[in-house]
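Supplementary notes for students who missed Thursday's class. We covered one full example, reproduced here. Read the sequence, then the structure, then the short commentary at the end.
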Amino acid sequence: MLICFFDQKGIVHKEFVPPSQTVNAAFYVEVLKRRRENVRRKRPDQWQNNTWLLHHDNAPAHAALLTRRFLTDNNMAVVPHPPYSPDLAPSDFLLFPKLKTKLKEQRFQMLEEIQTESQAILNTL
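Structure (token representation):
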């Protein structure tokens, strides 16, 4: 599974979920900490102005109290996502089609090969 945060300028943070790892609130908060650091490093103007918005869906890990508390404690603005609205996922329209097009018709033997190729493609977006 790929977790990816991006804006109109490109990808800010990306990481693969380790095999057999469950994306629960505790794991997601750790991802958000790494994302937060990447926003600070890659988008210093938005970091200083606190204008970088987070849009995620209503997955249990995203809506959990631990996650909401982390977002509140760190003054991270979240764009509301209406319930039962999978058609509002920007990654499904902006990011994943580009990734899928470049991976089309390739065969991989190992998970690491997929991750390496995906990273290379994401680095060009």
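Commentary. The radius of gyration is 15 Å. The chain has one domain: 2-122. If anything here is unclear, bring it to office hours.
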